[in-house]
Amino acid sequence: MSENAVPGSAAPLDSDQKEKIRKLLRSHLPPPLYTPSTISALALELAQYDTKMARAPQNMDQLLVQRAEVQAHYINCMGLFAPIRRIPTEILVEIFKMCWEAFASTIGKGAGGMSLAGEMSRLAHAPLLTLSQVCIRWHTIALGTPALWCDIDVEAILWADPLHVDNNMNLLRAALERSGNHPLSVSISNERSVIPHVPAYGLISRHSERWETVVLECRFSDLLPLSGIKGRLPNVENLHIYCWGGDAVRALETFRDLPRLRHIDFCPIAGRSLAQLPWEQLNDVECWEFRLHGNESVIPTILPRLSRGATFCLAFSWLDQDVETDQPLDGPSVRSDIAVLVIQVSDFSPTIAPTTLEFLLATLTLPLLNEFVFVVQNMCSDLPFLWSHSQFLSLSERSSFHSHLHTLHIYHVTISDAELLQALAVLPALKSLSISDHAQLPRDGSVEQVLISDTLLVALTRTPASPCLVPDLHFFDCQSMLRFDDNVYLNCVLSRVQGLQGPKTFECELWWLPGHHRELDPTVSRTIRELRSEKRLLFCFAQTEDS
Fold this sequence. Notes:
The chain is an alpha/beta fold. The chain is built from 19 helices and 18 strands. It has a domain at 15-85.
């Protein structure tokens, strides 16, 4: 009988047909042409069994067994038409990738922290092995798609127990083989400072020309066995350095020659040892856990060498800073041609942090800066951050912000209405403005700070009689307690929409802070809806994602 021939019997499939259906279920082959007629016949037979059981209850046990066999055939045949069998391979690969990434991001996050079992599961890509057992097609995709095996995580704990070394080396070898020739993301970590396994480093070093992203979270001395790959890293684009201990100079020597490197994020413990890295070719640099007393050399060492148009992000947790000190905050003036400066604060001391910000703003000259972002990320602080107003004005003047600063984002800072208006007055080139109120928290000593006020909105409103602040504004983002007059807000928006030239659209985002929701005035809401329907305004009104 040919593959698509209709079986002679209309009802149950014979053993060969049963096996054929089961094999088809485990493959991606289309169902035979006879399958719909078989399904109809099986459905009819199921109905006949139901009738027989109603008429002859004394034979119920035997009939139930026979009906269950037919039901199993029926379900298998119907399964050949399941939508999931028609999902394109490319989409399944993306789904598998999301499963893997979701799993990998949770390892070590539980109460027990990092464990040998967890790291072995990560190295083995355990979710992919599970998916590979579903059917032949999934097995082929999960084990035969190199892009799914490109994350290679070598944690030193994998080699701490001699009983597991051989098995873990086999897991590493299998992952590298399954990754084919795909670019690799290689992570080398040693959270518990155990002795690294040099053969494992040797194995991943053989594939150094495929390294694209490199994550280093270990002692600098752990990297010394990698010295042989110096000059053999032609495709590294992203480098993460979170290392500690001695031997920084020798360890970083390995990563001097990276012709395609474009992004570095690092913890500045290495200090001046970082100078040997190729900063001039980078597009994006992130410095985490910066400490002024001890890491201050990072600013003059790195910033002047960054290329025109680069982005520099400086992240602080000022609660981790040294206690207040009499050491003067003084350093050399630093000029940099970066295009974007982002300063992030997760926690802060009300006395140390503003002084440190003043130092940074007083040190820098940024003649090509397009975007300045200052974000206090932890809204749980009792007090909003004290803005260094005079130093920002000085930075603006010597850097000529009036001609080229297009974006200003400042979140959760203390600044008076007069100071905010004065700052905006010296930034006529702004096109994008993001500011936030600071909500009062239910604890003693907390305060509120309202920046999005009627005073600000009136100053930003275009009128024929007088000039307004920020005349070329195209994007206005507010995180607010909604303490303003809705009609004043609408007048500001209307003036901006009407002032746009050509087919441009004004964009507004109005986010209410948690606990401060209210509905906008109905007339105001109706006018905004009309502007949106005319495609003259993009508008968002929702709760802020900050927490």
